[in-house]
Amino acid sequence: MSNQLNQILEVLDATIASRRASVQEGNVDALSYVAKLMKKGDDAILKKIGEEATEVVMAAKDSRTNVIEGRFNSEYQAKLVGEVADLWFHSLVLLGQFDLTSKDVLGELGRREGMSGIVEKESRVKE
Ligand SMILES: N=c1c2ncn([C@@H]3O[C@H](COP(=O)(O)OP(=O)(O)OP(=O)(O)O)[C@@H](O)[C@H]3O)c2ncn1[C@@H]1O[C@H](COP(=O)(O)O)[C@@H](O)[C@H]1O
């Protein structure tokens, strides 16, 4: 699973970086969604992130509403997975636009591993 996850993220990071390089060189492949979105710029990507996040919220609410006898409905679960995939994907595009990759985020999550969120929050210097 971990290898598969790394491989999927590595391929996506590399594809996104290559789309970004081509946009910077002025070549936008008409069949590339990523290149077209990156060419539109930061605001277009950020708008997509907002939309996809909202769609995740709505799909989760739908899934919860359609629990019957304590069981989730597979159709709503699949919809939720699809919406989260859209959000992750657009987050990777956003990272690429800012010269970052999934590795940067995984590094940060690794740094936080085992750290209680409550303890971390309490350790923050109060202004
Ligand atoms: N994982 C994805 C991926 N997920 C979603 N999408 C696209 O994201 C777009 C937006 O999805 P929405 O559901 O929000 O659709 P929409 O509201 O109609 O879209 P918009 O009108 O807002 O663009 C759709 O065109 C999807 O096809 C993706 N496009 C590409 N990838 C990956 O990125 C790689 C590079 O893609 P290209 O640059 O298109 O070659 C691909 O090989 C895939 O691995």
From TrEMBL:
Entry keyword set: Amino-acid biosynthesis, ATP-binding, Cytoplasm, Histidine biosynthesis, Hydrolase, Nucleotide-binding
Keyword Ribonucleoprotein: no
SUPFAM superfamilies linked to this entry: all-alpha NTP pyrophosphatases (SSF101386)
Biological process annotations from GO: L-histidine biosynthetic process
Pathways per UniProt: Amino-acid biosynthesis; L-histidine biosynthesis; L-histidine from 5-phospho-alpha-D-ribose 1-diphosphate: step 2/9
Gene Ontology MF terms: ATP binding; phosphoribosyl-ATP diphosphatase activity
Annotated compartments: Cytoplasm
Main subcellular location: cytoplasm
Keyword Transmembrane helix: no
Reactions it catalyzes: 1-(5-phospho-beta-D-ribosyl)-ATP + H2O = 1-(5-phospho-beta-D-ribosyl)-5'-AMP + diphosphate + H(+)
Family per record: Belongs to the PRA-PH family.
Protein name stated in the entry: Phosphoribosyl-ATP pyrophosphatase
